Amino acid sequence: MTAIEVLLTIVGLIILFGFLGFGLVSLREKHLRASRLSFLFALLIGILFALLLLSPALIQNIAMAIIVIISTAALILYFLPSRDKIIPSPPPNKRVDERTIMFARASLEPGSPQYEAYYRDHPEHKAPDQTFRQNPGLLEPGALFFDQKLAAAPQGDFFLTEALRNAVDGRVYQAKVDASPEETTRFIKALVAYHGARDVGICRLQPYHIYSHIGRGTGEYGAPITLDHTFAVAFTVEMSHEMINTGPRMPAVMESARQYAEAGKIAVALAAAIRAMGYPARAHIDGNYRVIAPLVAKDAGLGEIGRMGLLMTPDLGPRVRLAVVTTDLPLIADSPTWDPSIIDFCTICKKCAEVCPSGAIPFTDRQTYEDGTLRWKINPERCYTYWTKVGTDCGRCMAVCPYSHTDNLMHNLIRYGVGHSHNFRRAAHWMDNLFYGEKPLPHTPPDWIQDSK
User: Fold this and answer.
1) Residue 201, CB half-sphere, CA atoms under 13 Å: how many?
2) What is the CA radius of gyration of the chain?
3) pLDDT (tens digit, 9 = 90+) per residue, 41-86?
4) d(C-alpha 78, C-alpha 95), whole Å
5) Pairing of strands 320-327, 311-312
6) Angle 108-133-391 (CA atoms, 0-180°, nearest 5)?
7) pLDDT, position 450
8) Taking Cα atoms as reference points, which of 319, 402, 400 lies closest to residue 357?
9) What are the beta bridge partners of residue 232?
10) CA nearest 134: which of 110, 101, 167, 117?
């Protein structure tokens, strides 16, 4: 074989095995479109390079030159840092009243004093809220995707989370652990990871992190919130790719509820451990928050707030659940990270908005809101009303987000390019649409769920 033929053989095999490997990974992930296209491209590449090896030397030289040009351009596209100026959002200039969020509004009992008082103060919410109250509800019979047996799993997890709500705070031991902030920081982060969290970060607690008034959970409804802790520890737990990709059907809410419970268990255990070290600490878990977890997590360096209004982590996108522990334990805060690549990609990619069944996610660019922030804002009434129709917490936006792909070598190579180059972000968005479709369909549930029906 000539030198050119050897090079063509090596290049052909690299591309061939690359597509075969991606096809196998996609098949395991149940991305059937991506696996079929990958195997098709592998076949075509095999045929093309076989023909090139049988071609005259002139054709082989031209092909090799084209390959070199394309490879060089691709490397430049992949490694060239982005020079685009993405403006970070200022922090909110006022606090949020927890009574205004959808979950607090949904928990109001018609005819109760709280119900009457809330809609007297917020008459603009009464009509849309009456709409969702006419639907069956989350995990309720009559909802589109309700299945009594499958609904039992999230009901069990929500029962556990509710049982943990009274354990978020407690007695502080008198004796304090004698350790430096550096030591306690290392220990707390390792302890959170030991309990099963995916990522953990620390920030100084800011006023805008804290709700202004109690809307649900323990404490008196409507009471002003005073939280004078110094630090906040935020962490994520990963939600199963296989389960979330079935959304808006029941397995998605099964996984969502399971990870709310997992996050709650870790937070309650961590807060209790810190109190045993002699310092006050409170866990903030599903249904009993005093802080806005995504804002805390953002300032703790865990990600950015994306188009769908959720925390976007670099490795898993929105496919996580959050919990927070606030404390006076001396810690070292992480430097707040600003990741413009996530904001830029969300500006380019509108896939979550395309597939949202309720049309709750905006297609427009970020806008400045009355709290001074520059961000995307979903329509919470549309989103929650859809939940009450189908009986699950949907999750289509999380399922189709390109950041939500599994954490493996294939996807991490793409993530690296996305994190470094604006042009590569555009290419990655195009490739995601090509292999997974612009509007991917929900996946079939895992075999153990299908077999149990």
Assistant:
1) 21
2) 25
3) 999 999 999 999 999 999 999 999 999 998 888 888 777 776 668 9
4) 41
5) unpaired
6) 110
7) 78
8) 400
9) 203, 326
10) 110
pLDDT digits (tens, 9 = 90+) for 382-395: 999 999 999 999 99
Dist. CA 37–CA 33, nearest whole Å: 6
Tokens standing for residue 220? 């008196």
Residue 419, token pair as written in the block: 């994190």
Structure tokens at 260: 């709310």
What is the Cα–Cα distance from 189 to 66, expressed in whole angstroms? 50
Encoded tokens for 438: 């612009």
- Chain CA centroid to CA 325, Å: 19
Closest CA to 340 of 62, 14, 84, 127: 84
The C-alpha atoms of residue 34 and residue 437 are separated, in whole angstroms, by 9
Backbone dihedral angles phi then psi of residue 325, each to the nearest 5 degrees: -125, 125
Q: How many CB atoms lie within 10 A of CB 218?
A: 13
DSSP secondary structure letters along 297-325 = HHHTTS-EE-TTSSEEBTTTBT-EEEEEE
Query: Over the range 223-261, which residues count as b (16 or more CB within 10 Å of their CB) and which as e?
Result: eebeeebebbbbbbbbbbbbbbbbbbbbbbbbbbbbbbb
Q: Read off the pLDDT of each residue in 91-106 and give the average, rounded to a whole number.
A: 97
Q: How far are the Cα atoms of 104, 121, 282, 319, 381 from residue 143, in angstroms, in the given order?
A: 21, 31, 36, 24, 17
Q: Residue 170 to residues 34, 46, 71, 278: CA-CA distances in angstroms?
A: 51, 65, 60, 12
